[in-house]
Amino acid sequence: MRALLAAGAIAMFISLFATPGFIWLFKNLQWGQFIRDDGPKAHHTKRGTPTMGGIVILTAATVGYFVSKLINGENPSMSALLVIFMMLGLGLVGFIDDYIKVRNQRSLGLTGWAKIAGQVVVAVIFAVLALGFPDEDGLTPASTAISLFRDLPIDLFIWGSVIGMGLFIAWISLLVTSASNGVNIADGLDGLASGSAIMAIGAYVVIGFWQFNQSCSTVTENLASCYNVRDPLDVAVVAAAIVGACVGFLWWNTSPAQIFMGDVGSLGLGGALAALAIVSRTELLLVLIGGIFVIVTGSVVIQRTYFKLTKWRTGTGKRVFLMSPLHHHFELKGWAEVTVVVRFWIIAALSVVSGIGLFYVEWIYGI
Predict the structure, then answer these.
(1) Residue 184 annotated as binding?
(2) What are residue 155's DSSP bridge partners?
(3) Which pLDDT value is given to residue 37?
(4) Which domain holds residue 163?
(5) HSE of 156 in the Cβ direction (CA atoms, 13 Å)?
(6) Residue 285, domain member (yes or no)
(7) What does the DSSP 8-state code read for residue 76?
(8) Who's near 321: CB < 8 A, 6+ residues apart?
(9) Which helix (H) or strand (E) is 197 found in, with range?
(10) Mean pLDDT, contiguous 10-residue spans, the chain (367 residues)
(11) Where would you tag: which of 66, 133, 265, 289 has the fewest CB atoms within 10 A of its CB?
(12) How far apart are CA 87 and CA 265, in angstroms?
């Protein structure tokens, strides 16, 4: 518990007080946000706002975690190290994307396929490492089964280790690219992605702590409901560090934002979210816990699919929304940016509460 509180507090302190320095630095480096001409006109006033603030979040979270472990006299666990690896690995992909944008002064950085390739490379390394390093009980950071509240009886290695490894890598890559791009798409309004990420990643503080309290290696009652998860408390500690870093950053990122997280932040946080779901063995539950990211990503898929279908059938592409992602649709409907952000935060909170609620109900009733 001491490491958990220390990780969150240290990470928040660093991001809260270091961010103004990075704002000054990025302004001098001219690392300003480039605004799309076809976006909402109200966003044109944001042109030049310092971006790549995700560097602060990722640094604060990483330092917060390691210092908390040092204070508590503990060694870092393999599960937490994998979460940090995923966060920093995807953060690097986002940094390259951001740097190309600010260097060339345009809204496009890496091509879509190049960005996906970078995400998959990180996901493959994560997948290979996550099936190694068993603890004294033989538990590895990830399992070969697909999980919801715990592992389901769906083993990807049922057809042998070669095919199974291929299926496992494909499954992990799907989770990682979906979660990271979901957070990336939501990062379009001041504070929307950072505030939503606080709630979604905060859910894994609760889940990790509860799995630790109900670990099969320690409980003597309710054995049918106990959890076989490696390093659950340390998963909660690293999640707390990321939440603390996001809280400190949100102080400067809320409307009117003085800094944006950029792809380095959104891809890094999305990667961390996917990694937390994998090592806590709640992969499918992520669809509900990250519900707001699913909704905004779904709006983009619906918009593009409908446009292509109507263009193919009638020659003229039609749109479901005034603009996608969905938050821009409501801006063009006349909602104030702050109104959109707060209402989307409410949806994010309801999704997280529903996810944690179902997780707890499954522990009680075993549904």
Answers:
(1) yes
(2) 145
(3) 64
(4) 1-291
(5) 20
(6) yes
(7) P
(8) 299, 302, 303, 329
(9) helix 192-213
(10) 92 97 91 70 76 96 97 95 98 95 81 93 97 92 96 93 96 97 94 97 97 89 87 96 98 94 97 98 97 96 95 91 93 94 97 97 83
(11) 133
(12) 9
In whole angstroms, give the CA distance from residue 72 to residue 66.
10
**DSSP-derived secondary structure for 299-348:** HHHHHHHHHHHHHHHHSS---SSSSSSHHHHHHHTT--HHHHHHHHHHHH
Count Cβ atoms below 10 Å from residue 240 Cβ, excluding itself. Answer: 30
Cis peptide upstream of residue 134 (ω within 30 degrees of 0)? no
What residues contact 269, with CB distance under 8 A and at least 6 apart?
Answer: 54, 57, 87, 183, 193, 194, 197, 201, 242, 246, 261
Residue 146 three-state SS: strand
Identify whether 296 is part of a domain: no
Q: What tokens appear for 275 in the block?
A: 């990694």
Distances (CA, A) of 243 to 21, 35, 175, 203: 21, 28, 20, 10
In a domain, 313, yes or no: no
Paired tokens of 206: 């609760």
The pLDDT of residue 367: 58
Q: Is 253 annotated as a binding residue?
A: no
Q: How many CB atoms lie within 10 A of CB 224?
A: 6
Partners of 50 in beta bridges:
32
Report field, pTM of the whole predicted structure over 0.90:
yes
| Max CA separation in the chain (angstroms) | 67
Nearest C-alpha neighbor of 286 from the set 207, 340, 211, 365:
207
Q: What are the backbone dihedrals phi and psi of residue 155, each rounded to the nearest 5 degrees, phi first?
A: -95, 120
Residue carrying structure tokens 């994560």: 126
Q: Domain count of the chain?
A: 1
